[in-house]
Give the backbone structure.
Amino acid sequence: MTLVGKIFTVLIFVMSIVFMAFSVMVFATHKNWKEAVTNPTTGYQKQLDLAKQAKTEADAQITMLKENLRNEQAARAAAIGVLAARAQRLDADLLAKQAELDRVSADMTTAAAAAKQAQERLAVLEGEAAALRADLRKTEEDLDGQVLAVVKLTDDLNQAIALRNSEQEKNTQAVQQIAQMKMVMDANNLKIDSLVSHIPPKVEGVVLEVSDKDLIEISIGKDDGLKEGHTLEVYRGNTYIGRITIRRTAPDRSVGQIIKELQRGQIKRGDRVSTKLS
């Protein structure tokens, strides 16, 4: 016998054992299907009846549930319609509110811009008001000063009016006295300056030249009011030297003659001459 024959023989033996085992297992698991079906307690017929009953109950339950579902769907559809209508109303209200919000926002923006402009204007007006208050204060101070000045001027005016009235009275009296004096002078053939023409004006000068004929030239003349015949005193420092009589006058020079009887010393150039003090 060849090797292949031996192998097939072993395989046939193994397969025989395997099939025998299958047969034993099938026999062991063999079931009486009739009894299994017709058994009143655990048979398949009983289970089928129970299942049909359960199915009938389930169908009724399903029918009821379907009816409930239809009712619920109808109610839900109605509720959804109501909610949809409400949603539409709410959308419309929302759009209206949004439009109102936009309008309010625009109004607020406009109001904010107006408020900013008002604040800027207020700041400008406050500055102008401060300047006006300062001007008003200054004007009041100036007005107070002017009032005081007016009061002072009024007092001065009243004093001036009183002084004028007094001076007018004195002037009236003086005019009357002058008129009386003129009548007296006219009656005695006197001129206005005839009584005072010999009195020299109050002047001072210096000796410019001294001659050997008792004549001296001094620095004051006709423009200073000197006339021929006026007398002047001569001093050197605080020392009295003598007296001169004016003989000739020029606008800015005069020539005087020394009165020998009153001479107290030698008159020299530079000595001071002046009107005799009363």
The longest strand covers residues 239-249. The chain is about 65% helix and 15% strand.
